[in-house]
Fold this protein.
Amino acid sequence: MSKPGTPGDQAFDAQGFARGIHELLVLAALREEPRHGYQIALDVEAHSNGVFRFRHGTLYPLLHRMEANGLIQGRWSSGAGRRKKVYSLTDTGRRHLSGEADRVEEILAGLMQMLRRAREVPA
Amino acid sequence: MSKPGTPGDQAFDAQGFARGIHELLVLAALREEPRHGYQIALDVEAHSNGVFRFRHGTLYPLLHRMEANGLIQGRWSSGAGRRKKVYSLTDTGRRHLSGEADRVEEILAGLMQMLRRAREVPA
DNA sequence: GATGATATATCGGTAGTCGATATAATGTTG
DNA sequence: CAACATTATATCGACTACCGATATATCATC
């Protein structure tokens, strides 16, 4: 694995990265307590000063996908009133959260290194 | 702009982010001196310890796109031997480099905040 | 002359974001 | 109560562009 170019290294995957970020945002929002989709969107937006924002057309399919993958589990709130589907982290999801956090952190380190390089004034 | 949720804020755009990263990698690689595509790929991989890696099917269309957008300018090396298309930064590209670097840095700050949050141990 | 590295190019499959649109219950205001 | 905004979820089609595969050609080495 010391040889550069060896496949299997966990390198930056542009497609997976954006998706992974969205998943992380959801998982992080559910870290403390279960929430329903709309709440997750508000929560994410509030905690990031509006940097991250879920569109409806992105969020709900994402939640369905994550539920199908066993990362979260949804239950329709039984009470009367507006129907809400409340999601909570599964054990898999909780494990995934910390694992992905490590992975993303490595990539962020690489990105910051790149930014430093981008800012070096050419001689 | 103080009001959170105001549209027009430059928020995280999942699609644009991944593309922006790839563009930044190219621009940063050309910061000091012109290089041809294959060189850029090697350079990026070397400077990121293999975290970032360009596939050929990604790199060359990207270079064409960036040239069409006026961020870089390519010239076929006139000498004999293997043909190489050497790219250099345009003024637009140089401006874009610093602008995008600022934008990405903001997003990175948001991502790191999210990571911290993801790691907080729930009570 | 076969293999492998250098060097560029293109295409089709694929996945997922995003805007638009739909539905419906609830809160609010006059 | 009528009209409207907000809360809440869902789905679809257009679009974008990454990625693996494939092709072409030069050069070095053996």
